[in-house]
Amino acid sequence: MAEARFPLLAFDTSAAHCAAALVTPQGLFTRFEPMQKGQAERLMPMLEELLAEAGLPWAHLAALAVGVGPGNFTGIRIAVAAARGLALGLDLPQTGVTSFEMMRDPAHPHSHPAELVSLPAPRGEAYVQPFRYGAAQAAPRLIDPACPPADLAMPGRMQVTGHRADEIAAPFAGRALTCELENIPGRLAQVAVWKFACGLAQNARPAPLYVRPPDAAPPSDPPPVILDADRPETTDRAPLDADV
Questions:
Q1: Rounded distance, CA 177 to CA 111, Å?
Q2: DSSP assignment of 151-188
Q3: Do 63 and 94 touch, CB atoms closer than 8 A?
Q4: What is residue 19's predicted lDDT score, i.e. its pLDDT?
Q5: Is the model's pLDDT at 224 over the cut of 70?
Q6: Which of 118, 124, 178, 213 has the most CB atoms at less than 10 Å from its CB?
Q7: CA 166, CA 160: separation in Å to the nearest integer?
Q8: Residue 213: what pLDDT?
Q9: Per-domain boundaries in the chain
Q10: To the nearest whole number, what is the mean pLDDT of the chain?
């Protein structure tokens, strides 16, 4: 049977911040620092400070959790790489927590039979993902909140939670809870504890959640020609010692 694991260390660098939480039987310790860059340099010292405040060594940790996005491409990779390295070095179970899961009500993560969670996306769009009693029902997708696709409709009394929820819910006559993601360390910790306690933390290596590929185009140059090693090279050029 699954059980909560304490002390649990969780952290997130998926946006313009460095956030961390440490859950112990004695209480919750958190850190949150807004920053546009520098998360790679700040993350490990922040975790050290959190453990020192709680009076715990690394060896006393029981589990890890990490925010996997969606969010900033580089930021997500910083936290995920750190979580993988720590889990391997300390032999700890680990789980990823998505920003969609954090946007939901962390006090009642198993609630709502038909919930569509919305996060802000670039260029005025939104990332959305459907949930049933806290479990994701499909992969997240990118939509225009002003014109949500009809196939987003969910059976039952549908609720839309998060970014521009009122616009998205209107065509489906659903309830709307318009809100933004706040208290990231606290929400991350609560969701992580719930996932371990309910057996939803599969202890698989956390992977970044990208709803859309990074804004980088593949090279346009044609690939090099690979010569067949079993066939002699042919060329129209004259030999170097030929008369020209």
A1: 14
A2: GG--SSS-EEEETTHHHHHGGGT-EEEE-----HHHHH
A3: yes
A4: 98
A5: no
A6: 118
A7: 8
A8: 56
A9: 8-197
A10: 87
Sign of the alpha-carbon torsion through 65, 34, 142, 102: positive
Q: How far is CA 7 from CA 12, 24, 28, 93, 101, in A?
A: 17, 5, 10, 12, 21
Q: Which two tokens stand for residue 219?
A: 């090279």
Domain at 8-197, CATH from 3.30.420.40, 3.90.1150.10, 3.40.220.10, 3.50.50.60: 3.30.420.40
pTM more than 0.90: no
The CA angle 142-148-152, to the nearest 5 degrees, is: 85
Packing angle, helices 39-54 and 73-90, rounded to 10: 40
Contact 52, 68 (CB under 8 A): no
> What's the pLDDT score for residue 244?
37
3-class DSSP state of 14 = coil
Say if residue 96's pLDDT is above 90: yes
Note if the bond before 70 is cis, omega within 30 degrees: yes
Picking from 69, 43, 47, 56, the residue whose alpha carbon sits closest to that of residue 6 is 56
Predicted confidence (pLDDT) per residue in 162-174, tens digit: 999 999 999 999 9
Answer whether 166's CB lies under 8 Å from 178's CB: yes
For Cα atoms 42, 44, 47, give the angle at the middle one, nearest 5 degrees: 105
